[in-house]
Amino acid sequence: MTAQTSQGVASRLGYGLGQVVRLVWCSENRTLRWVKRLALIAVTVYSWVWLAHAFMAILTVGLMFLALAVGGGSRSSLVSKSSYEPFNSASDNDPYSLENQNNPLFHANYDDNFLN
């Protein structure tokens, strides 16, 4: 019975990973071996940070699409017209609000000589 001669994807990936590990972990020069190991650690940390950023971006976009799908994307459903009262807001009775800053009903007009 003949052995299977065609190599699959897993076999090729395993062989390539073994070659990389042999290149990094096994070296005659101790300094060169540790430089290779530190470079591999740096590349790994950078890859994890990049993957975390990509995951957060995909999560954000997915949540935005989910909010649009669940919410329907209609702005009229957010504000009901029956409960909207533009002149009964909290700033109507505040004399220091931007809307009432120059309103003469809140600030009395004094004459120029009111101290005399």
Automatic annotation (TrEMBL):
Keywords: Membrane, Transmembrane, Transmembrane helix. Residues 75-104 are annotated as: Disordered. It comes from the Bacteria. The chain crosses the membrane at residues 48-71. Residues 85-104 have a biased composition (Polar residues). This is DUF3742 domain-containing protein. It comes from Pseudomonas paracarnis.
